[in-house]
């Protein structure tokens, strides 16, 4: 219940900012004032502010007044195989059994253990811009080309938390499969990008 409350409050603060109630660089009310307004504990408001700070909606240090941040830059993705130019954080490296979907993508049997890595790509301001989850079998092998399928999917709770967004919000989901010189898959990945921070303009090359 508390988690649902702070996410609802974060969503309402987003709405109020979009409506012009607070503008860029303007401080928001204190946690105590907001707790009174929403009739919740101050801790719930702190969680909402932290969520909005992680997503780049608010600026300011924890425990102090927060202000409305400049909108995050909208980036354009033209090549889903280029290395991320800024900092990254590896958040999970636990091996995973191949699901039916991953098995089909990698050409292996379902249930085979795969190496796995989830990396959070951070923008220059330290905000999470993209989540990349990769799977491969055996040692990581070089690739000569890749293919990409572009779609959308609702964020999982873990993805939403990392990106500072709400669960079930829609994000771009790029399925990237790397191929060797014979066209065999050597690695596959899901790239999850918030739709409000990215344009997808893939090159034909």
From TrEMBL:
PROSITE patterns, alphabetized: HTH_GNTR (PS50949)
Keywords assigned by UniProt, alphabetized: DNA-binding, Transcription, Transcription regulation
Cross-referenced InterPro entries: Bact_HTH_transcr_reg, Chorismate_lyase_/UTRA_dom_sf, Tscrpt_reg_HTH_GntR, WH-like_DNA-bd_sf, WH_DNA-bd_sf
GO molecular function: DNA binding; DNA-binding transcription factor activity
Coiled coil residues, start to end: none
Gene Ontology terms describing biological process: negative regulation of DNA-templated transcription
HTH gntR-type domain segment(s): 3-71
PANTHER family: GNTR-FAMILY TRANSCRIPTIONAL REGULATOR (PTHR44846:SF17), MANNOSYL-D-GLYCERATE TRANSPORT/METABOLISM SYSTEM REPRESSOR MNGR-RELATED (PTHR44846)
Name recorded for this polypeptide: HTH gntR-type domain-containing protein
